[in-house]
Protein: Hypoxanthine phosphoribosyltransferase
Organism: Edaphobacter acidisoli
Amino acid sequence: MATTTAPTFPPAAGMDILFTKAQIADRVHALGQQISADYAGKDIVLIGVLKGAAIFLSDLARAITVDATFDFVAVSSYGRARVSSGAVKLIKDIDNPIENKNVILVEDILDTGLTLSYLRGLMLQHKPASLKIATCLDKPSRRLVPIEADYVGFSIPNQFVIGYGMDFAERYRNVDDIRLFPEDTPGH
Ligand code: IMP
Ligand code: MG
């Protein structure tokens, strides 16, 4: 049986930066412009996946110039482990109907794809006019189910990251750049 180790939380300041605040801002601005062009003359509904996508959504929404409303969903998380049980459970559903709306699901990281393929299936049952996916980060090498995002901030290798909404055991979400979480941290 695997031994369990209490997680430790090294300071973010000591972790290597993968993307700076400025690089993130530039990329999110470009995504906002792309989305605004793609949806010119239309309204959109941005559905953020709590909690990780909250910060990306708040920046992306302000980089979008077409009319946009927000909603949020929450799903069961991995906890502090990066292993996926494969089971995704809805904890919070959307508040407002999305039938005939142009919906963009907004996520922090597209990893195995289990979360977003589950959510996509769920949202499609509501018969939106269109459904696209925006993710801040994409780890294509980790995919267990076939799913791609329509809007990707950055594609990254199989490395665990924190900051800009992304956590390790709920910590580091408020770190304003994206950093590499040290692999040798106990509890990781
Ligand atoms: P998946 O695509 O279903 O595997 O789930 C993606 C979710 O796993 C993301 O929304 C994150 O919450 C979490 N996740 C995956 N990789 C990382 C990482 O490197 N740092 C923090 N959270 C991660
Ligand atoms: Mg998440």
Remarks:
- The two ends are 16 Å apart (CA to CA).
